[in-house]
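Appendix C reproduces, verbatim, an entry submitted by the partner laboratory led by Prof. M.T., so that reviewers can inspect both the input and the predicted structure.
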Amino acid sequence: MRSEPSDLRRLAWRIVRRARPWRQLAFAALASTSAGLASAAPPGRPEAVEASFTPPSGIRVYWNPVHGASGYVVRRDGREIARVAGPETRYDDATARPGVTYAYAVAATDGQGEGPEGARAVERADPPLPPRLECDLLVVGATTAGVAASVAAARYGLKVVLVEETGRLGGMSVNGLGASDIRRIEDSSGFFEEFRRGVQAYYGAGNGLKYEPRVAHEVMKRLIWSAPGLTVFRRVRPVGVGTKGSASRAVEWVDLESVPDGTRCRVRSRLVVDATECGDVAAWAGARYRVGREARSHAEPHAGYILYDRAGDRLMPGSTGRSDRRIQAYSYLMTVRDYGEGADRTIEKPDGYEESKYRHAPPWDRSWNATSGKLPNDKYEINQHPYGSDLQGANYAYPEASYDRRRALEREFRLHALGYLYYIQTSEGKKNLGLSDDDFRAEGGWPSSLYVREARRFEADVVMTEADIMGARSLVRPDAIGIGDYAMDSHATQPKPDPATADMGEGEFYLPQYTPWHQVPFRIMIPRGLDNLFVTTAVSATHVAYGTYRMEPVRMHFGAAAGVAAALCLRHGLAPRDVPVGQVQAELMKAEPGTAERPARDGIGAPGPLAQPVLLYKYADVSSDTPAYRPIMWLGARGFYPCPPAASRTPSALLAAAPFRPDEPLDAGEMARLIGILAFRADAVGERLREPGIRGPATRVVTRADAAAALAEAFGWSPTEGANSYADLAPGSAEWRAAQALFASGLDTDIWGLAGSRDRAGRRLFRPSQPITRAQFASWLYLAHRFIGPLFFDHPMDRRPSLAVPLPCQSVPLRLE
């Protein structure tokens, strides 16, 4: 913090008084000089610079005041556009052109000079809503899933329209949910990892998993505005849907309405993503859905009416397990700041406030807010339950309610949340805690979105259950588009009447000891009966299983995959349910995002949808920088290298992953097992692999020549006579025949990427006696797999889960000689 001139003067005169008389004159001069230097120092950097679209076409720039500043300079794209006199801390840019992205910066002045600029803020004014619009992809709802879908699809060059009922883009991540719902940072991947790194870069410190709403919104907007061909309409919502077809329907058009003035627009889009929490578009189009809770069953031991003791991990008396239409509590996630000792930020008493509603909330210092909800810059996410910000039992009608009814319900939730803050400030004496004054400035200091934790859940061909999540280590899901890493949980569905009981309210559970990291399946976002629509938020799962799919990092996986699938649908003339998931996976594992100059495109060598690749499976020693990352992920998703179930059911054990050991030499037993799985998959499509004889004991290290001979024998490959592709192989030798057979089939050293595969003259080297590593052989398996199934479409076994154990080699009982 910069010292004030008065502080420096006092320090200088204190020294003068203690000095010898003959030195006092010199010290007096020093004091005068120090004070002069201090007053001449430039002012500090403006903090919390933010830009927000203000309809119909303006952009308002905000910043926090700088002590001692007499005014501020506002720049747009590096050029000064205004000078604002203090103490004003905002500026309205009325000259912004719709559809143009601007970067705003603010610097303080004090008459002596200009200080450094604060962090830049980007914004774009929305275009007017036209009466009619056509696009490739319409995304309804700028939730985290909606943003991910829009950005991913736009990077392929699609004409994408994103509409959002509020003025904020990024769902709950920009509306108060500042503590990311992910247990381990190493499980972050894909679009969420891109977002996380953006947060980390903005702060210049930390791990990017906790953030202020303002910062999250800035990072989201930078991602959105960097995507070419993406048009955004804020404060616009769907009001009607038209479909065509009978047995199998398609969305023909969606009617939109401007919230401020009622202007209507009819959008005809080739594909639609319903990314809203309630799924209104999908429901209006006729998709089947569920609201509420399923009954308890063998596959759903925590379903239905439940009183759960977390500490004892038991169902309490009265837990009938019956099904009903109750849904877990909603809340507004307030962001509060500690303004320091002596500050009084007490709000006006909310209408209907009753102190008894909050009396049993834990004291502030022991609350979730102060422990897990701590955010940067002395801020906190308020997410306390069952006594606190949650309002149980008031939301049952919300998923299917009209907009007017939802607004009335939202007022109840707002008053309840403000009541909790008022309780903290008054009954707990924490007057220094108040609503953040530099978040939600365009929204009057309040988040624009209620936390709708669960609403409709649409039915797809696959409905994920609690057992599917619990047994994730026993099954593999070849259609994975990411991994999930948060416990199945549900907030209470009814207020807790007795604070002394061990439960946290009827309907509440938190199940980390039943939730391992798990693969996120693609097909649960394709609702039955609709041909051109994805549902990326209200996915196909039971109430219990949905408890882990509702987390923002997972929602971003769904969104990004839907954006990729939309691009594949439109390029290859496919319906969503016919998209090859293997092709979606290949795109999601790319690490170069498309741009306007170089759009993404499916296939090798072209950019993809994301700056960070996804995890399809998890290994403790494999990251996106690991050689053969894509083959390892692709094979892992299909059960070639299963992570065994945890020996004990503890949260930490269930998060563990087996090592892959990519740099270790392959042994003969492992090679036999892997070729056996390949043979099993060949048999499933009517192909037969031959039985290769693999020499020696199971522990014998396999050389490159051994591996080439085994694959060539299994597939019946032969070399091209007269060819000599490797300088270190004698023509006609056994090593030459095996290596040339692979080369003739497209498996050469250049493709599978061995370092040092050429000599100084540039000739290829096979190095037949060198051990082949596990990662290198994974590359061979990955490439060889295309000979036993469709080149573009999915292998039949990849359309359903399979046991995550070494598959029996019934068709080819491979032997070790």
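The first strand starts at residue 50 and ends at 54. Additional entries are available on request from the coordinating office.
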